[in-house]
Specification:
This protein is α+β, with helices and mostly antiparallel strands and 85 residues long. It is built from two helices and six strands. The chain has a four-stranded antiparallel sheet. A two-stranded antiparallel sheet has the order 3-4. A hairpin with a 4-residue loop joins β3 and β4.
């Protein structure tokens, strides 16, 4: 039998974020050494004078993050995060 505590089990969560704050929220979570996922897709948008290529989130309003339950408060206090889905 080993002494000490067992490692915390991490799970993936979909987190709801503020409108158009997906990249900022993902960056802040990553800066806290949390594993994140923000799938992006390249798309063309027509503006009044030109067409531009943008990378936009596949799931607008959401960032995916893998964390243990003991990091829940840390995640929820991250600016831009509204909460888990």
């Amino acid at each position: 039998s080993r002494s000490g505590s067992l490692p915390e089990i991490t799970q993936w969560f979909a987190l709801n974020v503020r409108h158009q704050h997906e990249r900022a929220a993902e960056r802040l979570l990553a800066e806290q050494n949390l594993e994140t996922l923000l799938p992006l897709v390249r798309t063309r948008r027509r503006w009044s004078d030109r067409v531009v290529q943008l990378e936009v989130p596949v799931f607008p309003g959401y960032v995916f993050c893998r964390y243990a339950s003991n990091n829940r408060i840390l995640v929820l206090r991250t600016p831009g995060i509204l909460g888990p889905v």
